[in-house]
Amino acid sequence: MGKALAISNAWTHIICAEELRGHAHLGPASTHLILAVEEAVKARVLHKWPALIEVMTVRQLEDLLYTHPVRHEIAQLDSMPRALRAEIALWTVDHPDQELNRATLTRLFVRHPEAFPVTWAKNAEVERQRGMRVDWDGRVWRSPKEITESHYSRRYGRCLEFVVRTAALVGTLDEIKDELAETGWEIDQEEW
């Protein structure tokens, strides 16, 4: 029950994001995309719950459900396609005496636009807040209006794919297929 509610709420955030985008409110729209991913991660955690309770402490389980940074890290890892994971593994085999640094990871991640960027786990919380509030960053005032269409569009594609893949994982893809088709996304369930 919880996973269906979580993925349904993730989908609601996607719809809210697009509605806000239609009114040129890209900051709040971008925030809703991050919220969608957080809810999708919650659905993934609840989907795996029976196995997780066997190997994790109560505190660890609570962190999975209630801690944003943990959910952002899960999203980043879960968004990585097998090909990217293989490239990372091969890089470490090919460079046994080198540490896999951020610049190298970035070069590998860029080849896979469906994966959240290397900075996702670190920046998602700040970006979520940035999309909703005017804030002083110590040098200048920041506004949600600074979010550009380009920034939103890149985030939208990744977030939508993550939510759709999660819906397929937890068995609720059929519930959103018609809405996806209305927006131009033809989903062949065999691919997901």
Spatial arrangement of strands, main beta sheet: 1-2
- Give the biggest sheet: 2 strands, antiparallel
Structural class: mainly alpha
> Which second-level CATH architecture of the largest domain applies?
Up-down Bundle
Number of domains: 2
User: What are the low-pLDDT stretches, counting only 5+ consecutive residues below 50?
Assistant: none
Element pattern in H and E: HHHHHHHHEEHH
How many beta-strand runs?
2
What integer is the average pLDDT? 89
Count of runs of 4 or more consecutive helical residues:
10
Percent range of helical residues:
over 70%
CATH secondary-structure class of the largest domain: Mainly Alpha
Which of globular, elongated, flat, extended, rod-shaped describes the shape?
A: globular
Proportion of residues in β-strands: under 5%
Radius of gyration: 18 Å
The fold-level CATH name of the largest domain is Four Helix Bundle (Hemerythrin (Met), subunit A)
Ends: how far apart? 22 Å
